């Protein structure tokens, strides 16, 4: 290994050391992620509050982003050392590649988190939504009808009742104003 670095000048060695070090740490991080040991802390906390950006797993200043930056910076410096002879220009290009690595990993993480979102149907998500009446809804909660309602991109057929003094005919549009058990309470929409 000494012979490999012996023929290099200091700048080239600098990029190689960064590239190798960042690669080793990146590989360790990746392995730890796949075996589930990538948690930042061992503390479980349960609290309620409104934190701006609290859902976002992306933090600009984190060890993971530092490693991503150094990975791009180091390997760009190694790869472009013989192509770009001006060391300042090489450092600028390597810096930009490092920033691109951070952005690239951000978009990958964002896509992966979308896969893990809970898209299960919850009847509470229907409140305030508009639905199409499928089976007429009897007036004043005297019986149940059926509605088609779209929640999170999927359509559901649910039972519905109304407080309205008039029956709501099929084909009408209604708005969900409440829930009783697993039955929607709707009001007719007037256009």
From TrEMBL:
Coiled coil (residue ranges): none
Gene Ontology biological process: proteolysis
Keywords, sorted A to Z: Hydrolase, Membrane, Protease, Transmembrane, Transmembrane helix
Transmembrane segments: 14-35, 66-84, 90-113
GO function term, MF aspect, one: peptidase activity
UniProt KW Ion transport keyword: no
Name used for this protein in its record: Serine protease
């Amino acid at each position: 290994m000494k012979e490999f670095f012996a023929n290099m000048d200091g700048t080239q060695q600098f990029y190689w050391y960064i590239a190798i070090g960042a690669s080793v740490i990146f590989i360790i991080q990746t392995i730890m992620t796949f075996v589930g040991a990538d948690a930042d802390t061992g503390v479980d906390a349960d609290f309620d509050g409104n934190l701006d950006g609290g859902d976002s797993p992306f933090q600009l200043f984190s060890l993971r982003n530092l490693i991503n930056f150094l990975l791009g910076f180091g390997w760009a410096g190694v790869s472009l050392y013989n192509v770009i002879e001006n060391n300042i220009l090489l450092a600028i290009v390597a810096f930009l590649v490092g920033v691109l690595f951070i952005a690239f990993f951000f978009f990958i993480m964002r896509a992966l988190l979308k896969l893990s979102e809970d898209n299960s149907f919850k009847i509470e998500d229907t409140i305030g939504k508009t639905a199409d009446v499928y089976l007429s809804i009897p007036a004043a909660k005297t019986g149940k009808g059926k509605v088609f309602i779209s929640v999170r991109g999927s359509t559901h057929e649910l039972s519905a009742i109304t407080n309205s003094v008039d029956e709501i005919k099929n084909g009408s549009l209604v708005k969900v104003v409440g829930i009783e058990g697993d039955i929607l309470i709707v009001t007719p929409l007037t256009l």
